[in-house]
Q: What sequence folds into this?
C-alpha cells in the first residue's frame, strides 16, 4: 500500500516529462574554450526551466518515507523488482536516501514512464484511480 499520494506522483510524472522533453542545447564545434562552452550550455539548458524547480520543491515537501516510496516506484517501474518485494524495495530506498533525492530521480531520462509503471503495478493510473 502506498503512503505517498498517487496524485502527487502523477504531478511528479508531469514535471519529469516537461523537464525531459526540453531541447538539447548545441554548442558550435569551433568553440574557443571548452570550459566556457560547457558553462554556456548549462546556463542555456536550465534557463527558465521551472519544471525542475517545481519537481524539486514537491520532492522536498514530501515526508522522508514518501520520498523513499517515490524512489521505490522508480525501481519497481524500471523492472528491478516485483510488487511482492515492495517492503524490501522501500527499505532499500530508505537505506540509500540522500538529500539529493530530487536530482537522483530527475537524472533518470525514463523517470516519467517508470513512475507511471510503478503506480500502475500498485493499481493506480494518473488519469483514473483503479483502486477505491
A:
Amino acid at each position: 500500500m502506498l503512503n505517498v499520494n498517487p496524485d502527487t506522483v502523477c504531478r511528479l510524472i508531469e514535471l519529469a516529462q516537461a523537464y525531459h522533453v526540453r531541447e538539447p542545447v548545441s554548442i558550435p564545434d569551433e568553440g574557443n574554450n571548452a570550459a566556457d562552452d560547457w558553462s554556456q550550455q548549462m546556463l542555456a539548458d536550465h534557463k527558465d526551466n521551472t519544471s525542475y524547480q517545481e519537481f524539486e520543491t514537491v520532492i522536498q515537501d514530501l515526508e522522508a518515507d514518501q520520498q523513499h516510496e517515490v524512489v521505490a516506484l522508480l525501481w519497481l517501474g524500471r523492472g528491478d523488482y516485483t510488487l511482492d518485494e515492495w517492503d524490501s524495495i522501500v527499505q532499500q530506498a530508505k537505506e540509500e536516501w540522500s538529500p539529493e533525492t530530487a536530482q537522483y530521480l530527475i537524472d533518470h531520462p525514463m523517470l516519467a514512464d517508470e513512475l507511471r509503471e510503478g503506480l500502475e503495478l500498485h493499481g493506480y493510473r494518473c488519469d483514473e484511480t483503479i483502486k477505491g
